[in-house]
Amino acid sequence: MRDFSYLRADNIEAARNAAALPGAMLLAGGTTLIDLAKCGVVEPATVIDISHIEGLNAIDVTADRALIGALAKMSHVADHAEVKSLFPAVSEALWQAASAQLRNMATIGGNLMQRTRCPYFRDPANFPACNKREPGSGCSAIGGVTRGHAVLGVSEACIATYPGDLAVALVAFDAEVDLGERRLKVEDFFLAPGATAEQEHDIRPGEVITAIEIPGSAAARRSTYIKVRDRQSYEFAAASAAVGLELEGDGRTVRDIRVALGGVATKPWRARAVEDALKGKALDEATIREASELAMQGAVDHGANHYKIALAPRVIARAILKLGETA
Amino acid sequence: MTVHDVKHAASDSARLEAVGGRLSRVDGPAKITGAARYAVEQQLEGLAHAVLVDSTIAAGKVVSIETQAAKAARGVIAVLTPDTIMKLSVASDWFGNPLAPQRTFCPLARDVTYCGQHIAVVIAETFEQAVSAAALVMADYDQAPALVELGDGTAGEIISIEGMTKEWGNAQAALAEAPVHLSAVYNTQRSAHAAIEPHGLIARWEGDRLTIWEPSQWLDGMARTYAEWFGIPFENVRLVSPYIGGGFGSKALALAHSAVAAAAAKMLGRPVKLMLTRSQNFTSYGGRATTRQTIDLGADKAGRIQSIIHRGVSEVSLEGMWVEAVGSITSIMYDTPNFSSRQDVVRLNTVLPNPKRAPGENPSAFGIECAIDELAHELGLDPLEIRLINYAEQDPHAKKAWSTRQLREAFAVGAEAFGWAKRSPAPRSMRAGHQLIGWGVAAGAYPVQRAHGEAVVKIMFDGSVEVESSSIDMGQGTYTILAQTAAETLGVPVSQVSVKLGDSHFARAGVTGGSRLAGIMTGAVHKAASQALDELIGLALSDPRLPFHGLQANTLAVKDGRIGSPRGDGPELSIAELMSMLGRDRIEAKGDTLPAGTTAEERYKNYTTIAMSIPHTEGDYSRHSWCAHFVEVKVDEDFGTVRVSRVVSALDSGRLYNPKLAESQWKGGIIMGIGEALLEEGIVDRRHGRTVNSNFADYMLPTNADIPDIQTISVGIPDPHSSALGGKGVGELGIVGVAPAIANAVFHATGKRVRDLPITLEKLI
Ligand SMILES: Cc1cc2nc3c(=O)[nH]c(=O)nc-3n(C[C@H](O)[C@H](O)[C@H](O)COP(=O)(O)OP(=O)(O)OC[C@H]3O[C@@H](n4cnc5c(N)ncnc54)[C@H](O)[C@@H]3O)c2cc1C
Ligand code: SF4
């Protein structure tokens, strides 16, 4: 960890101006930033503390949409009564993330900006090669310990898993991220590695996330987030699924379905093939399981992460079955 | 030193405070309020801060180390490398045997034998300055190929540990003749001690006297090591370790980083503080070694074992020796006429493994207790029944009677409390929704390790009592049970007793390991307190000014801090009144459990080495603690995730000095067992020999959410052959047998036998 200067931004304009400085990084809850600075992964020249900006932590939910300020704490959003009733998958994704202590510190804006947990990425002293950190330096993970690495959206440059939970639910329900001048679909905000593994987010110098907006829908109202991991709590997903379901009046035919995956892809992964296969179909277990397999089209494993190809469809299927049962 | 306040209703005191009472930890409030000051929390004038630089290769040579930039950085006092740090003498091993052949010991490595080995140290005015400068130290290496996994086809040098071979009968021939056979390989993983309190120390020199504040499970042993390293008399080293935030076996030795800090302090003439980072706590010292065991069982059709052939191997570093003795309890669990067990170690580019809770016994149980379960399944027998069919009525290896073995009782009581009779025998036959339910059982054992200890007991002018010992409390409750022992022996309330531990200048004690401390120290305190009391009573009876004079009594008794005739009639004084009338400010006695005539040299050896430990099979008996674990797991049929939903354990640790503390120890062991069965694994990149999950987010310890209700039941009876007060070992026992009980339950739930720990979800998908 090297010396840096500290600036406190009291309003969003000041934050944007400061964020345009070379080597500047925003500090919200600090649970990612400080951690990565200690690992030697990020070395900000200036840290801009945005945690005191007023009004950025608002949570405003109506039947039409949820508007969540970038500084809202993960724990507050998870516990918010309307989020729970109108967007259950969002609440469930949040309370199953990290630990209670972290959720009390961490913000929604920071959550979208969290970095991969690839162990090689996080250990520059021992593993200089990492395209995500140092473009062109190579990838230490390929050929190494890959149990947690992605099977979807990988490239030869990088196979790192997008680790977060919230964004998986956001992608499922077509949420948008507000960057001030620009507004992007969360799905487009996250970038798969391709040949430019270092670019994870479509965010430009001087841009600050101010809020996310999630459109309300029947599918969002009947939604869930299932997270599978070896440890019951405080672990990133081996595989997870955010699923929303809207049925026709007959109570079994699918009118609308949303499926997104976490823990298995390089970005929060919308599984449209599964959605398309199920729309208009009557739900039964065999149909659900068969359709869920379509999520793994194009999956590529690196040995130790092969199990994810079998696991992820089962997580999707379980989530759909669970929502179907609550009809 | 914090004085511990004891708070509970006075009406409860007799019941709670007696030896055997459920007194809460006397050090608990100090720990919870933060008043307890741990070793490295000492605030010293002029303290300098050291941060280590570690090798990033696992094998090879450090060709050069660039230190200019670090030296020029703000606040830096010195940067030391293998060339510039002072050379020390080589210290002797656990047994006090000198370690040839090197003449000197350089605590920073030039020849690298594992990744994470310390190669340089930066000392600065502040911790932050040292951290920042350490990142500027650059090393050039001449890298050599590394061997990092026990399973590597090209594994390193194999060494047979001949002393661990156990054979009787003709195991090969009996196996060939047995109608039922089973052969399987069981693997246990590298696991970390993962104590919450990291390793670290403060070293301060005053002339040729060295004071070390360092968490320690063995003050006298570590003081010896420092004395030998620096060539100073043992008495010149003072080690202070008032509290320990978890050791589990890792804090019994002074390690390379300890030597670096002490050497730096000497070179700079300033006290130096050095803490290992969380990551270094995974790489600077070894955890439990990786093991592999092959078991061949032969049995008759009724399930009676005819032969056991066991071959075990564990990993060890290129330098030093630690054997994870995977055959340690294979030989005593079941009665078999023919037996053969051998142990090898394989040298790898890894840090020297260390003892971790029930070293040897824990992986040993995973082999034999899974194998017997597999045999039961093959024969269609209940897993509990097969254990009773093969019950060992005496130690099959030593051919001696058990001192006490309440294992049959443990099976019966545990099965009853668990409801074992309702188990449906077929695998995969119990479920709730998507959850496959499995019930498993396994037994465990831990030998009674004995040695000697000494204690000082002082009766003070005001009636208070002080107990002093260089033994330690790492959470297991030494402060509490020694207070109970002194209070009971002297007839005073616990609130009048203050126990002082963790200073090597106190009365001496050997290593706190192998669950031996409670048995030794309660014995020593009992003896010292009895001597002090005898002296007090003698003075009281013989002093003509006192009311007891002329009573014709030949003794007096103390109750609730008041002294009088044993029958309770006649005059009575408080101890404070008596001390004042006697004109004494204290009565002090030193008691030890050593045989009369022990020489000074033998005493030194007894406390600073383990060479004088008494074998558990000494004399006519074989002494062990025993346990039986009953476990319920739920395995998700789609996801392969395993959750332990219920544990009932019945344990025989002999007499319990404090059941509340014993239960906590057992439960701690069971929780650690759940971690090792399902979650924990030090994962190494085989190309680099680097541990890639050296942090608490990626190294999976169980969280509270992973731990179900655990019921522990004591089935022990006082064992007079094991200790002065009848206790056997507690702390190590609980973990032994947990992993096989879980693996057996997973098999029962799923029909899948997982023989490689940890049982992670991909193994069940
Ligand atoms: C041990 C551990 C376990 C975890 N487990 C999980 C888990 O299971 N699931 C999960 O989803 N997450 C998990 N996390 C990640 C956690 O959710 C994130 O660390 C947290 O959400 C980050 O929020 P923060 O406010 O602390 O961000 P900070 O650390 O303050 O910032 C993180 C990054 O975002 C940038 N940033 C912050 N705010 C803004 C903004 N408004 N606009 C633009 N950029 C911004 C910062 O510059 C920085 O680069 C875990 C983290 C840890 C340390
Ligand atoms: S997978 Fe990506 S993040 Fe990990 S080492 Fe390779 S390039 Fe770096």
From TrEMBL, chain A:
Domain annotation FAD-binding PCMH-type: ranges: 1-219
Indicate yes or no for the key word Flavoprotein.
yes
Gene3D superfamilies under this entry? 3.30.465.10, CO dehydrogenase flavoprotein, C-terminal domain, Uridine Diphospho-n-acetylenolpyruvylglucosamine Reductase, domain 2
- What gene makes this protein? yagS
What does the UniProt keyword field contain?
FAD, Flavoprotein
This chain belongs to the protein called Putative oxidoreductase with FAD-binding domain
Alphabetized InterPro entries for the sequence:
CO_DH_flav_C, CO_DH_flav_C_dom_sf, Diverse_Substr_Oxidored, FAD-bd_PCMH, FAD-bd_PCMH-like_sf, FAD-bd_PCMH_sub1, FAD-bd_PCMH_sub2, Mopterin_DH_FAD-bd
Which Pfam family is one of those matched by this entry?
A: CO_deh_flav_C
A molecular function GO annotation: oxidoreductase activity
Which branch of life, at top level?
A: Bacteria
The UniProt entry, under PROSITE patterns, shows: FAD_PCMH (PS51387)
TrEMBL record, chain B:
Q: What is the lineage of its organism?
A: Bacteria, Pseudomonadati, Pseudomonadota, Alphaproteobacteria, Hyphomicrobiales
* Name used for this protein in its record: Putative oxidoreductase with molybdenum-binding domain
What are the GO MF terms of this UniProt record? Answer: iron ion binding; oxidoreductase activity
Encoding gene per record:
yagR
Q: Which Pfam families match?
A: Ald_Xan_dh_C (PF01315), MoCoBD_1 (PF02738), MoCoBD_2 (PF20256)
Q: Do you know which SUPFAM superfamilies this protein is assigned to?
A: CO dehydrogenase molybdoprotein N-domain-like, Molybdenum cofactor-binding domain
Q: Where is the Aldehyde oxidase/xanthine dehydrogenase a/b hammerhead domain?
A: 33-145
Please indicate if the UniProt record lists Disulfide bond as a keyword. no
Sorted alphabetically, which keywords does the UniProt record give?
Molybdenum, Oxidoreductase
- Judging by the UniProt lineage, the source's domain of life is Bacteria
Which InterPro entries does this one have? Answer: Ald_Oxase/Xan_DH_a/b, Ald_Oxase/Xan_DH_a/b_sf, Ald_Oxase/xanthine_DH-like, AldOxase/xan_DH_MoCoBD1, AldOxase/xan_DH_MoCoBD2, AldOxase/xan_DH_Mopterin-bd_sf
